[in-house]
Amino acid sequence: MDTRGRGTNNGGMTRYVIDAPAAIQLARDGVAIADGDQLVAPTILRSQCLSSLYQASRRGELSGKEAMALLDRITSMHIRLLGDRVSRAVAWQVAERLHLDDTANAEYIAVAQLQADAFVTLDPALARQAEGIVAVAPLAALYPAT
């Protein structure tokens, strides 16, 4: 893997799992991910983005209109959402392994383990949980090289 978190599966295409904060930041930045890369996430991503943006609006950090525009951008990103039986079973195992109180974070790690080269999260605690299970890449890995 190089410094941008590039993997070698899929003939050079790199698959990244992103969490809700990463998806929101990509939407804020208006980023089109690097050519040849693919985004994947558990189905929980949609609900977490909706909830986070709603909460930001309630706190006055964003107007409702701004929050909905970000949500629309996230919805239009090409993110493959996964919630199949195998992903759920692996999430359960990850949650047990890490002694988590719920499976939300484990879902991201499970999808990364099954379907991706690296996991991009803006949550330092989640990144620490994922270390040793999956490769963790910085958000910058998703931005086209300049």
For this entry, give a set of tags.
five-stranded parallel sheet; disordered N terminus; 5 strands; single chain; 6 helices; 146 residues; globular; alpha/beta; Rossmann fold
What does this structure look like?
With 146 residues, this protein is an alpha/beta fold. It has a single domain (10-136), classed as Rossmann fold. The protein contains six helices and five strands; from the N terminus they run βαβααβααβαβ. The chain has helices spanning 20-29, 44-58, 64-76, 85-98, 104-115, 124-130, and strands at 14-18, 37-42, 79-82, 118-120, 136-137. The chain has a five-stranded parallel beta sheet. Helix 1 (20-29) crosses helix 2 (44-58) and helix 2 (44-58) packs antiparallel against helix 3. The longest helix has 15 residues, at 44-58. It is globular, with a radius of gyration of 15 Å.
Topology:
Layout: E1 14-18, H1 20-29, E2 37-42, H2 44-58, H3 64-76, E3 79-82, H4 85-98, H5 104-115, E4 118-120, H6 124-130, E5 136-137
Parallel strand pairs: 1-2, 1-4, 2-3, 4-5
Helix pairs in contact: 1-2, 1-3, 2-3, 4-5
- Give the percentage of residues in beta strands: 5-15%
CATH architecture group name = 3-Layer(aba) Sandwich
Computed Rg: 15 Å
Structural class: alpha/beta
Global mean pLDDT: 91
The CATH homologous superfamily is termed 5'-nuclease
Give me the side-by-side strand order of the main sheet: 3-2-1-4-5
Distance between the termini: 19 Å
Count of beta strands: 5
Helical fraction: 40-55%
pLDDT < 50 runs, ≥5 residues: 1-9
How many domain modules?
1
Largest sheet: 5 strands, parallel
User: What is the CATH class name?
Assistant: Alpha Beta
Total of helices: 6
Give the helices and strands as they follow along the chain.
Answer: EHEHHEHHEHE
Principal-axis shape: globular
